[in-house]
Each structure stands twice: as structure tokens, then as C-alpha cells.
Design goal:
It is built from three helices and twelve strands, in the order E-E-E-H-E-H-E-E-E-E-H-E-E-E-E. It is mainly β. The strands form three sheets. The chain has a six-stranded antiparallel beta barrel with strand order 1-2-11-10-7-12. It is extended. The two termini are 12 Å apart.
């Protein structure tokens, strides 16, 4: 079992034994540092809090600086908690976590925030088919159609699929295979795509399903 924080570098391709191009994602994973150890007696649950990246000193608040100083590490850009069952051994504040917690061929889950698409219509957001393209229809090509009857029910039901903000959702992609690990560069190459744009931050955990 393993867990780590990382940053999506971009996508590339590798070739397998059959000379087939395999799309892959390169992730800079770690080094992360334990910033706090949560315990049942003090916090009500057990977990390790990890920090990753280096935050600009101008954007570090005094409470944040004190929290990281107590752990003996520099302020990070991202912070997240993981269950103690995901990280083997007893860790203390300030201990490093590297890509060595994973191995090539292992299956992982990657959690991230999907790309923001802004305000989108129903065709792009919900895969609607749109209206008729003929018989005099000039402005119904990407319209949603009826969203509620006029006389009955005389309203639009809550949850009706309509246009709106698309993207920036928490997404988990499960059972991705680790193709290659480069510990000297803190890089993990994962088969397939992971959520989010380039330079976005992700969580990597060993799959449990």
C-alpha cells in the first residue's frame, strides 16, 4: 500500500513488447513530507497529513508557517491527509515520502480536479442531440428543447439537465497501471490519462478495488 501527492507534468507515449504505442501520463510524485500525525486520542481518527511542493513565502500565512515549522519542513503548496493503512510503518512529522512506496506494474487510483470548461450548453455538457437541422429550424441546433410543461407541471423540476458550469469536479480514475518509476527524478509514468490540466496537483493511492 502507498500514498503520495504529485503534479501532472503532461502526457507522452511508450512502446510495449508488441511495438504498440501506449499513451502515458508523467507525474512528478514527491518528495512529500509528513506535516502532522493525526491520532485517535487527540483528533478522533488516525491519519498522516502530507505536504508537497514549495509555496511562495509571500503567500504563507502565520498560522500556516507555524504549522509547517512545528513539523520541521518548508511550507508546501498542497496538503492532504491519508489513512495510516495506506502508508506502512510508523511515521513521524518531518519524515519524507518518495516514489519508492510504489512499484512498477502496481495498480493505483489517481484523484484530481478535472479541467474547467466554463459555461457550457447542454450538447457539450450532457451530450444532448439538439434540435432538428431542417424544416426551417435556424436556431434550434444546440437547444435543450422543452424543460417543463406549460400547463402541467407548470414548472421546471429540480435537477433538470440544463446549461451551466462544466468541469472543475473532483474525479477519481481507478486501476491505472504504473508503467515506469524513475526515483532519481521523482517521476511516475502511468498508463492512460489522469484528471486535470498540466501542472495540476493530484493524489496517488494504491487501489483498493
Amino acid at each position: 500500500m502507498g500514498a503520495i501527492l504529485g503534479k501532472k507534468i503532461g502526457m507522452t507515449r511508450l512502446y510495449n513488447d508488441k511495438r504498440e504505442a501506449v499513451p502515458c501520463t508523467v507525474i512528478q510524485a514527491g518528495p512529500c513530507y509528513v506535516t502532522q500525525v493525526k491520532s485517535t486520542a487527540k483528533d478522533g481518527y488516525e491519519a498522516y497529513q502530507l505536504g508537497f511542493g514549495e509555496r511562495d513565502e509571500k503567500k504563507v500565512t502565520k498560522p500556516m508557517a507555524g504549522h509547517y515549522k512545528k513539523a520541521g519542513v518548508k511550507p508546501g503548496y498542497m496538503m492532504a491527509e491519508f489513512s495510516k493503512t495506506l502508508l506502512e510503518g510508523e511515521l513521524e512529522a518531518g519524515n519524507p515520502i518518495s516514489v519508492s512506496v510504489f512499484s512498477e506494474g502496481e495498480k493505483i487510483d489517481v484523484l484530481g480536479v478535472s479541467k474547467g470548461k466554463g459555461f457550457a450548453g447542454v450538447v457539450k455538457r450532457h451530450n444532448f442531440g439538439g434540435g432538428s437541422r431542417t424544416h426551417g429550424q435556424s436556431d434550434r441546433l444546440r437547444a435543450p428543447g422543452s424543460v417543463g410543461g406549460s400547463s402541467d407541471p407548470s414548472r421546471t423540476f429540480k435537477g433538470t439537465r440544463m446549461a451551466g458550469r462544466m468541469g472543475t469536479d473532483n474525479v477519481t480514475v481507478r486501476n491505472l497501471e504504473i508503467v515506469r518509476i524513475m526515483p532519481e527524478s521523482n517521476l511516475i509514468v502511468v498508463k492512460g490519462a489522469v484528471p486535470g490540466p498540466k501542472n495540476s496537483y493530484v493524489k496517488i493511492v494504491s487501489t483498493t478495488k
